[in-house]
Amino acid sequence: MAYQTTNPYTNEVVKTYENATPEYVEESLAKGQALYKEWRNDPVASRIPVLRKLAKIFRDETDSLAEVLTTDMGKLFAEAQGEVILCAEIAEYYADHAEDLLAPRAIDSIAGDAQLENHPLGVLMAVEPWNFPYYQMMRIFAPNYAVGNPIVFKHAAITPTSAVVFEDAVRRAGAPDGALTNLFVSYDQVSAIIADKRIQGVALTGSERGGVAVNEVAGKYLKKTTMELGGTDAFIVAEDADMADVNAIAPRARLYNAGQVCTSSKRFIVTANHYDEFLESLKAAFASVKLGDPMDPETTLAPMNSKKAKEKLQKQVDAALDGGATAYFVHDPVDSEGQFFLPTILTDITKDNPMYGKEMFGPVAQVYRVANDEEAIALANDADYGLGGIVFAGSAESGAAIASRIETGMVFVNTFFSSLPELEFGGVKKSGFGRELGQSGIFSFVNQELVVKRDHPNDDENGGLILPHKF
Ligand code: NAP
C-alpha cells in the first residue's frame, strides 16, 4: 500500500512516503510502553501544558496547516481552516476539563472507604480516515494524552502528509517521544500491532468494512475497541417544519466537505405536504454551487478525495438508477480534470433498490416522500446504520419528540449538525460503538480501578467479619 499525497484538484502526485520498517514499528511500541509506565505515576496535570501548546500551534498556524488538508484530500480551504480551529478547541476542552473528569470518584459502600481511580490503560492503536485528517486524530489524541495513553496510529493511505504534520505539531508542543507515533504500515502490520501485548486498546474511525476487519483482530486478542463507522443519516422534514429553515440548511447538510462526512444527511425524508417545495429548493441550491479550485474562496464545492472514491460513487449512482431510481437533478458538467462529482438528487428509491440503505459518500442526495411524521420515523429507523440525524419540526419540543424515537447516536433539531468538543460523538447499530469527545470520550480507554481501603477487615454489627455472601 503506497502512502501518497495526490492533489485531487490537480492530480499532481505531491509526495510518496516509505512504509515503516518492522524495526521502526518495534521501536515505536517499546517507546510507547516505556512512556505508559512512566505516565502511570504522573498526575494528569503534568500533561495539560502540552495540550495547551498544541492548541496554540493550531491557532497560530491555521492557514499553513489548513493548506496541507486541502492538498491531501481536496477540501475547501475555508472548511480546512474550520477543521484546524476545531482541533484547537478540542485540545483546549480537554486541557480545561481533564483533571476534573479524571478525578477519583468516591463510592458510598459498606465495604469501606471506596473509590474509582482513573488510570491509563496502556498504548493504543488508532486507525483513522482521510475525510477530516486532523480532527479525527485530535478526537483520539487530546483525551488520551490527558489520560496518559500513548498512541501509535495508522492514517489513511491518501492523507499521509496530514499524518506527518499532525505528529510534528504534537512533538513541537512538547510531547515526549512515544506519546504519538505515526506508522505508515500495511493492513497486515496493523493486525500484528493489535496482536502485540503492549497494545491495550484500538480506536478505528472509518467504514463498516474497515471496522469489521480491524475489530475481528481486536476481538481475537481481546483488545478494547471504539468503532466510529459509517452512516446513512436521516434528515426528517416533519409536517409542521418551517421550510425557510429547512431550505437554508438542507443543501449544506449534504454538500459540506463535498458530501464526505459520516454524519452528512444522506436520506432526506420529507412529509408529503413539503415534498415538492423541498425538491425545488434543493435543486436550485445544488444547481448554484460553484465547483472549482478548493483554494479559491469563490468555490463552494470541492473535488472528491480521489479518483477511486469518485468512481465508486458513480457506480453506486448507476446501480441506483438501474434499480429504478430517478435522477431528479444532475449538475451541469464542469471543465476540469479535478475529481469532481456533479451534485445529484435521486428520488424514487424503493426498498428493493440495491442502493436503498447504502451509504453514498459524496454529493448525492437521496430524497424520500412519506405521508406523515409516523412514516418518517419508520423510514428513518429502517436502516442498518444509526450515527446521526437532523429533524426539522414546528418547535424544539415537537422536533425532540421525533428525535428521541430515532434509533441513532446523535440528533440535531431545527439546526445544522455540528461536532463540538463538549458533545459526545458516536453511533449505534453498524455505525459502531463507543463515544469520542465530550465527557464520555475521555473514558473510552481508562482503567477505572476500584480501590477499597480500611485500617482493618470489615466488622459487622456483631463484631464478626463481613459476610461471605456479600461477595
Ligand atoms: P476505510 O476504508 O475503512 O478507512 C479508514 C481507515 O481504516 C484508513 O486508515 C484505512 O487505511 C484503514 N483500514 C481499512 N481497512 C483496514 C484493514 N483491513 N486493516 C487495517 N486498516 C484498515 O474508510 P473510508 O472509506 O476511507 O472512510 C470513509 C468512511 O468512514 C465512511 O463510511 C464514513 O462514514 C466513515 N467515517 C465515520 C466517522 C465516525 O466518526 N463515525 C467519521 C468519519 C468517517 P487505508 O487508507 O490504507 O485503506
Automatic annotation (TrEMBL):
**Source taxon at top rank:** Bacteria
Gene3D superfamilies tied to this protein: Aldehyde Dehydrogenase, Chain A, domain 1, Aldehyde Dehydrogenase, Chain A, domain 2
Tell me the ranges covered by the Aldehyde dehydrogenase domain, including all copies.
Answer: 3-448
Q: Which GO terms describe its molecular function?
A: aldehyde dehydrogenase [NAD(P)+] activity; succinate-semialdehyde dehydrogenase (NAD+) activity
Asked whether the UniProt record includes Ion transport among its keywords, one would answer no
What UniProt keywords apply to this chain's record, in alphabetical order?
NADP, Oxidoreductase
The record's section on PANTHER family has:
SUCCINATE SEMIALDEHYDE DEHYDROGENASE [NAD(P)+] SAD (PTHR43217), SUCCINATE-SEMIALDEHYDE DEHYDROGENASE [NADP(+)] (PTHR43217:SF2)
Similarity remark: Belongs to the aldehyde dehydrogenase family.
What is this protein's name?
A: Succinate-semialdehyde dehydrogenase
